[in-house]
ATPase (AAA superfamily protein)
Amino acid sequence: MAQQEPNIIIANNARALDAELKWFQKVLDARLKLQMDNGEKIPDISAILPPRHDSDTSMYASLTVHYGMNYAERLAFILALIPHIKPQLLDIFLTQNAETNRCYTQFGGKNALGDFKGFLPTGETLLYILAGDSLEKRFAFSYLFAADHFFSVHGVLTLEKATQGTPWLSGALVLSPEMVDLVTTGVVRKPVYGADFPAKQIRTQQEPDELFLPPHTMEQVLEIKSWVQHGGTLLEELGLGEKIKPGYRALFYGPPGTGKTFTASLLGRLTGCDVYRIDLSAVVSKYIGETEKNLEKIFSRAEHKNWILFFDEADALFGKRTSIKDAHDRFANQEVSYLLQRLEDFNGVVILSTNFKSNMDDAFTRRFQSIIHFPLPKQGDRLRIWKNAFSEKTLLEDQVSLPELAEKYELSGGAIMNVVRYVTLMALKNQRRTITGTDILDGVRKEFQKEGRTV
């Protein structure tokens, strides 16, 4: 489909959805009249055909054509979408049964979710519209909620997990936020950092030639790029999806400041993928089961999104399991087992970062496609970093020798940049644009002190 202007996309989507809503209204009216059975001749709902999409260029039409949605699937999709675009269409389901003085049981639904005052359709609501009182039809349409249906496989529409002890169809119909965005504005919103998504997008404006890595390390990093670009072909077109696990898991390990976070950000830039850095302080919880719930929010949102998830200082989540001494240890080990399974099932790219490989549980490391060492830069690389680090609008004192700095002080790239930040601030503080050797030595000393070393 040719690229369209945003206002045209919105207009096309609105027109397509308006026609779909009118179709849904006719179907719903027919179902309600069939239930009342007042002698009026009402056609079966399957005879009320949905709008055709022969020449429709809307995102909604493209979506239904792409997935080859049938009658029931289109009805399920538009029903789940209605609370987002025209919730008043479902107000009829809030009608009370005069005999029981409460809402009709067969309507299903939820109407008590925070500030939302409307009716939230559930699996029960959908089957009522599709099947009425027919058990045979009801059972037949349950395929819509199967794990292998494209709704579930591609994260299009899910049935919310029902409260324990209640019928499974009492879960709400949940349309993914991305689908809501696509069929309305045509622009998928970035997830907002918060309790429901404790991760922040990280980006870099730096160029690939500013990443100084040994050839072997760079070769392994580029393997991840190849996976992002060709993994889908490998799994689907070549049929290896039946033989190997989905997704790609990599471990970055090495001292602080050696480029692990920069590399993850750069991979996003080179592949066009969004990279999200997980806020482990908001994920890890001392309460049993909460860590898994927090992490599931991230994995569920990231499924099928072509994102890269970056777990910095991953030891807090994926560290070695402890020996079982009490109930807390037992639950902690169960937590690690859950994480292991969730990582294996995730179909995207996950990068874990740690300062020490030995801190990671062997059960995780065995399942990584890449374990990549980020060593301290050697003298030649340190010199290149020093040469590229300073602002072009500052000058170096004549006695400052960058080759000597590179040879004498074994620093990471991040530590060198910390020195440059410090000495530039000192120059500005003293109202000059010249970087002195004394300031550089002070900056190096500060970095060494952080690591317990002396100059």
